What does this fold into?
Amino acid sequence: MTRIDYSSLSFNRLQTPVEALLCVFADHSGCKIAESTVVSKKLHIYLPGRPQEIQIMCNVDAGRLFYNRPDYGTIIHMDIFHEYGLVDHHQIAAALRDAVAHYNTSLLLDEPANRHAADANLIDIQTGTGGGRITGNLAYGQKTSLQNAHKNHVHIAAMLPDEHAACLFFLILAAESTILTCGLELRCIEKVVLTASCGNQLLDLSEYTDQTDSYLKSQKHGGQHQTVSQLSQQQDNSETAACTIKPTAAHAPLQSLNAKVQHEGQCNQQTLLGFSGQKLPTRATSQQPQYNLQPLADIADMEQHIRKQLRPKRQNLPAKCRLSDQQDAVAARKTNHLALEKTLAAVLDITATVQAAAARQLTTAIPALNISGLDLRFHGANASQRSDLCVLLDASASMEGLRLQMAKTLIARLLHSTGCRISLITFQDSAAQFVLPFTRNESRLRAELKTIQAYGATPLALGLKSGMDYLKSSHPHNPFLILITDGLPSYASGNTGDPLSDAMIAAREIKAAHYKFTCIGLESQQNYLVELAKNAGGSVFQKNHSLINGKLPFSASR
It folds into this structure.
């Protein structure tokens, strides 16, 4: 079993997220922990067509439904989502037992007077290979329908009192780490919604139940078929009132727990629980307004990247070679000035100029950097050549908030800084939408940007294909496709049935059509977008990392 480092899960550091989690439980609600886990004391549902959205049924108690318990709010239900595949339930069980042991050891060191420890006997699991009590023989959960239903997530049910809520974070870290060791990627949950089931909806649990050795089940066994109304109406009046949802808020989005304690993180291997090592804000400071200018700097970098891709690829020649008259070159060497009327059409390349001056300084032993006329480097006279920009905007649920606002700001700025015509296509859920044809009309562009709202899955392949179809029909001048996205595709729209493969096939079609292409990645999956840009024959820019032609400008090891 892979050793897991629990040193980041100190009780002092977990205080704020634990308090937030207990508030979620008290509100009969649920939330995300990091980006892969949904936790509540209720039933979770995901629809096959929208696997990135999890519904929490606020009027269906998990303990009542799974174990026919007479009490309410005692069973914590967690689902950790991953790439479709098999996770060995024996490995998960061993990792969870180890996590409970580490938690209890930490608890003993932190609170020596505490006599009660978390009980690993009160934790059940189910994966695509089986399940049962983690301290049992793990020979249960073998029904085919039950295993098939758990091939994209690890199910954990636990009876932990509020005083042991911190143990949940140990369990999640252990489960996520084990999923990764099984060769599967974690899957980000884009949206969690709180909803209520219809009172007469019949829940046929026969396909999802099996023999078990669980210590969580009630001694009183009922039938396999129960209605939601039978489950929810048996709750006391106070809980029923707390679970009532107003008609106007039947699908109210829930904030992730991760967002409450820090920021919206990515679902990656380095920050499995959304902790980046920074100090968590206290309640006194977390409510104060934060003014962060970093997004503006990021937008400027993205804009600069796109403008650089618009320039024709020309070799940077010394300034003297740009002059048509040799006498002008001689005059430049003597006076350190250029004949301006000869170079008005050229654009100064500041980076190349400074590099040339520094190289000359090293060879001549000049004490200070001094830029002369011979050091000047220029982009070609056609550096301002116009192109028609077709922007493909990811408007899926994960773009909601700052990311979508950054994308909108970038698109609006490109209209001014490039002087190019811009068209706009959005892709979200299961469709791509043509929003705006090629235009230079700023008011029309801004009006259309305001109407874009984030929701649904990420049909990346469909967005790429829609962009190509539009370029073929509109006959633009020097067409340039600009993809703006924040994550992996999650909706298949091709022949393979795999969203990632479908997008790669579409990318290769872009290269075959000889369209210029670049991708702007907003806190995205680095390796995938690099490969996507390589297949499209283009470039990629990612937040904090500028990549050209699919290559990092520095050596990176993982």
About this structure: The first helix runs from residue 11 to 26.
